Amino acid sequence: MTASNTHRAIDAVWRIESARVIAGLTRIVRDIGLAEELAQDALVAALEQWPESGIPRNPGAWLMATAKHRAIDLLRRQQRLDDKVQLLGRELETGQRGEDPHFETVLETDFGDDLLRLMFISCHPVLSTESRVALTLRLLGGLSTAEIARAFLVSESTVAQRIVRAKRTLAKEHVPFEVPEGPELADRLSSVLEVVYLVFNEGYSATAGDDWMRPALCEEALRLGRILAELVPDESEVHGLVALMEIQASRSAARTGPDGEPVLLLEQDRSRWDQLLIHRGLAALERAEKLGAPGPYVLQAAIAACHARARTAQETDWGGIAALYEALAHLAPSPVVELNRAVALAMAYGPATGLELVDQLAAEPSLRTYHLLPSVRGDLLAKLGRLAEAREEFERAAALTRNERERTLLLARAAKCRRTGEGGR
């Protein structure tokens, strides 16, 4: 294997194993920043040694053993040895790094709990939303600072600062490396789910830039969601989020045209929807519904399922979708939910019905800069034949969005309203 092939293999191994290694090290040193540094040191050692020695039989165990050796050396230098460190030292001295069968057994046994703890600490509510997202992608996704920066269209220095601040905050607040229990579990789990879905949404509908979608972020969020569903199998909302992401991701191939332009839901070629992802999503939704009363993610997954089950746009059960949005509004009220409910009502009972609710939302402060409010209003006005007003709404929406693909689409709709209106005079 050439050096370049080895480096590509190391990169792939790191993507797969980094979260596992960092999670195990955090349990040992109780410092997430130090744990990542030790894991990075092990990665550097792999880059130096593997091109000559070859990739080990168990590369993840090799990385973990190398990092643990460095952790022990560091603790010895700091004269803070304890029984655990001595035990780890004896284990590692019994054989080659990563080749001791007992060590590998311990690694596998601890992996699930450690990874779950790492998820909870990376998504801790004490951190800002931006910091939670950056830290999660860094520690659990194995993404570099540059990759995270490109994904969210910010500078590398901004991402680096967010990660550094997050680590300092976790240390300052003495956030324990543990899975929360009792009443705290629901709030903490909600924070984890929020971060995963934020990552997915940024990939599914990019808020800014030249691309309508960033599939790599969707894939990373789906991977984290599936792992979480395995680690906490009895939590309905976890399976609900996985179901929602699976079904939404099934439409990815149909959401863009030949030149990368957006294709709206009702105009998509449904033969391009991924039936395997739909099947997985519906199975996850069924599992979620069996675990208890539906929460917000389960209800959103049920809405996505209504679209997935319709063979054509005309067969969509818009009345059922409107009812699900009403239930969601009672459970998790928000102006955005009401806006989506207005769309469903318009599809089920006519644009005038939807417009009535949209107009009630016009004064909502949180929607003042939300481009989808004038976009939806423009669509409903156009269907009612009020083309001049519709054009103004589409132009206003285009001015508010930061995504270039979406801006082009909205301006095209505004131009169509102008042409149609002029043609009717």
TrEMBL record:
Signal peptide: none annotated. SUPFAM superfamilies: Sigma2 domain of RNA polymerase sigma factors, Sigma3 and sigma4 domains of RNA polymerase sigma factors. It comes from Streptomyces silvisoli. The keyword Repressor does not apply. This is RNA polymerase sigma factor. Residues 119-170 form the RNA polymerase sigma factor 70 region 4 type domain. Gene3D superfamilies: 1.10.1740.10, Winged helix-like DNA-binding domain superfamily/Winged helix DNA-binding domain (1.10.10.10). Residues 20-80 form the RNA polymerase sigma-70 region domain. Keywords: Sigma factor, Transcription, Transcription regulation. Residues 188-288 form the DUF6596 domain. Belongs to the sigma-70 factor family. ECF subfamily.
